[in-house]
Write a structure and sequence with these properties.
- There is one protein chain.
- The protein has four helices and four strands, in the order ααββββαα.
- It is an alpha+beta fold and about 130 residues long.
- The chain folds into two domains: about 1-55, no CATH class; about 65-120.
- The protein is rod-shaped, with a radius of gyration of 25 Å.
- The structure holds zinc ion.
- Zinc ion (ZN) binds near residues 34 and 52.
């Protein structure tokens, strides 16, 4: 991978010294390329940059990122539905005296809560913040 990257960067005319520095510094080469010069972009920390133009590049949402955001959205929606259901069940439970039904509600509540927990874990970012 590293050797391949160097060949690639050499092909687009990046200085050897610069590439070596980049790869040594732990910067990761991305599959996206610079819109201006076609050099593969690098990411180090939170910054994405073009090593040839020597400037930071903001990547317009990649398909992968878009899918991830969409997945988050679906997970978030599911969570909201469950929360509404829990709220509705709380109302019903308040007036319920039958122990058997209360147990059933309790079980449903427990399973919904664990679903919510899972949904939250699956989400990559917190949309609500
Ligand atoms: Zn560039």
């Amino acid at each position: 991978m590293v050797e391949g990257s160097i060949a690639w960067l050499f092909a687009v005319g990046l200085e050897v010294k610069k590439m070596a520095e980049l790869l040594k510094s732990g910067a990761a080469m991305l599959s996206e390329t610079c819109p201006e010069c076609g050099t593969p972009l690098f990411r180090k920390g939170n910054e994405t940059f073009c090593p040839k133009c020597n400037k930071p590049v903001v990547i317009i949402q990649s398909a992968e990122q878009e899918t991830r955001l969409m997945t988050d959205r679906v997970l978030w929606d599911s969570e909201q539905i469950l929360l509404v259901k829990i709220q509705e069940m709380n109302m019903v439970m308040k007036n319920e005296r039958d122990p058997e039904r209360l147990t059933a509600y309790g079980n449903a509540l427990a399973s919904w809560l664990s679903s919510i927990e899972k949904l939250r874990r699956l989400r990559t970012q917190n949309i609500e913040t």
